[in-house]
Design a protein that fits this description.
Blueprint (H helix, E strand, L loop, with lengths): L1 E4 L2 E4 L3 H9 L7 E4 L15 E3 L1 H10 L8 E11 L6 E13 L1 H10 L5 E3 L2 E7 L2 E8 L2 E8 L2 E4 L6 H5 L15 E10 L7 E6 L8 E7 L2 E9 L4 H12 L1 H4 L3 E10 L8 E4 L2 E5 L15 H21 L8 H30 L3 H10 L4 H10 L6 H10 L4 H22 L7 H18 L2
Parallel strand pairs: 1-10, 2-3, 2-11, 3-7, 5-13, 11-18
Antiparallel strand pairs: 4-6, 5-6, 8-9, 9-10, 12-15, 12-16, 13-14, 14-15, 17-18
The protein binds flavin-adenine dinucleotide.
Flavin-adenine dinucleotide binds next to helix 1, strand 4, strand 8, strand 12 and strand 16.
């Protein structure tokens, strides 16, 4: 059996893994980026394809990453969110533009910008061994098992998080995600006119997407249309029902692509780092549940996490010349940096997601219609991790919500819990305080779920 040796192995060359590799380009470290797919298919994924331009400004500044150009199918001004009865529309403009990406071309665009890491395509992570990872490579129709010695493994393998599931049992995170915390999706790209090319449309409707939403995103001549649902609903069955609702013309339009996918819609796993024997493990992107729990957007978040993980690795090696052994303490900085900012942001959105999922269509119509929930709440939650209501606004909303006291009480209760969780994430602990912190987080969830019944 062949054995190779690298400082870092990154599993998965999607947006998270690719940016981690790009970040390590100028580090002097040897990096191996593996992906199960053949090189020419890396990037392809069932997706809504929507992303804010902001992340490209960030990565251009930090890594000199080229902006996507021919990989962009359409540019939009923002999102329109429709209440189930369509009487209320929240229009959320993006600060810059929003892009609709061709995911395959975009994946290839990212790969082209990685200069130093070795890409091993057709290569599947199988398991750990005591000094690194075991992979299965397909070469000329033959399958070979190889070992790669390394000190750090980055799990950027997407929702299935294959490395996470193989990491030694530990107190830091759940290996498997609760089915209530995922959205199961079905998506098609259709040759279909869409009159509103400037906005992505999101339809809140339990009728077609129990616990999720239906989306229609304009991609020029094509429409990216799909829905996400809570387990155990079957997305394709609900999608067929949606097609009936849309009518014959829509139903008969040409399907360019179709398929299913899964998105984690919960707070990030509680620790983004762990040790597997002597090997340091870091989690990035969907493998770490770093997705916006309300709309399922994870491309930008995976890239930002890839950058932060790569930066943390560089720092570890810079501060410890001739590093012989990795420790959890070395890795923890990625945890602290991520959790105090992006992690906090995802956690507050997660609590709001649980609140939204507890509402019926009538309650959502009511909440959006009377202004109990406002579009600025969603913007503030995403940007600042908080919905701050001064006393006048609180009274005004309570007064508006008087005819549906149950929904109003749930809303106010959720805001209280959001405030608490925000503070806890801002005080993300070191290893010693971790278990107490985790217990406090879990208690917030237990209390919230009880009050959403
Ligand atoms: C239906 C749907 C719609 C979505 N819509 C949007 C949207 O509009 N906007 C948005 O921002 N996000 C959206 N997302 C989420 C987004 O696709 C993900 O958050 C993003 O792709 C995560 O990037 P990643 O790098 O973590 O993982 P991925 O993009 O999933 O990449 C993981 C990579 O790991 C490789 N891999 C997996 N297992 C192994 C293994 N054992 N060995 C080696 N390699 C392996 C895979 O081949 C893949 O290349 C959507 C997701 C779905 C399912």
């Amino acid at each position: 059996m062949k054995t190779k040796k690298y400082d870092v192995v990154i599993v998965g060359a999607g947006p998270g893994g690719a940016i981690a590799a790009k970040t390590l380009d100028n580090s002097g470290l040897s990096v191996c980026l593996i992906d199960a797919k053949p090189r020419e298919n890396i990037g392809e994924k069932v997706c809504g394809d929507a992303i804010e331009k902001e992340i490209f400004d960030f990565l251009h500044e930090k890594l000199n990453l080229d902006y996507p150009n021919k990989e962009v199918k359409n540019k939009v001004k923002g999102i329109k969110i429709f209440s189930p009865d369509k009487k209320t529309i929240f229009k959320i403009e993006t600060k810059n533009k929003g892009y609709l990406l061709d995911r395959l071309k975009f994946g290839q665009h990212l790969l082209r910008q990685i200069k130093k890491a070795t890409l091993m395509d057709n290569t599947l992570f199988v398991d750990f061994f005591d000094e690194g990872v075991v992979v299965e490579r397909k070469i000329n129709n033959k399958t070979e098992i190889e070992k790669i010695k390394c000190k750090i493994v980055v799990d950027a393998s997407g929702f299935n998080a294959i490395v996470r599931t193989k990491t030694a049992d530990n107190i830091f995170f759940e290996k498997n995600i609760d089915k209530k915390d995922i959205s199961m999706c079905y998506r098609e790209i259709r040759e279909q006119d869409f009159e509103d090319q400037d906005y992505c449309h999101i339809y809140m409707t339990n009728e077609f997407s129990h616990g999720g939403y239906v989306w229609e995103f304009p991609e020029g001549k094509h429409l990216n249309v799909g829905l996400g649902v809570l387990y155990p609903s079957i997305p394709k069955m609900l999608y067929d029902k949606y097609l009936d609702f849309k009518g014959e013309e829509f139903k008969n339009s040409k399907i360019i692509k179709s398929g299913g996918g899964v998105v984690p819609t919960r707070r990030p796993i509680d620790s983004l780092v762990a040790m597997h024997n002597k090997i340091g493990v870091m989690f990035v992107g969907d493998a770490a549940c770093q997705v916006n729990p309300i709309h399922g957007g994870g491309i930008a978040r995976a890239m930002r996490a890839g950058y932060l993980a790569g930066t943390a690795i560089k720092k570890i090696y810079k501060q410890n010349k001739n590093l012989s052994k990795i420790s959890l303490t070395n890795l923890w900085e990625y945890n602290s940096k991520y959790m105090k900012n992006q992690g906090k942001n995802i956690a507050v959105l997660d609590l709001f997601r649980i609140f939204l999922q507890s509402l019926s269509d009538d309650q959502i119509n009511f909440g959006m219609g009377i202004g109990l929930i406002k579009e600025k709440d969603l913007i503030n939650l995403s940007n600042t991790g908080e919905i701050k209501l001064n006393i006048v606004e609180k009274i005004s909303r309570l007064a508006k919500g008087i005819s549906d006291l149950n929904t109003t009480k749930k809303f106010i209760y959720t805001l209280e819990k959001i405030k608490k969780i925000k503070k806890l994430y801002e005080e993300y602990p070191n290893q010693e305080g971790f278990l107490d912190w985790k217990k406090s987080i879990e208690k917030i969830y237990i209390d919230l779920k009880k009050n959403m019944l």
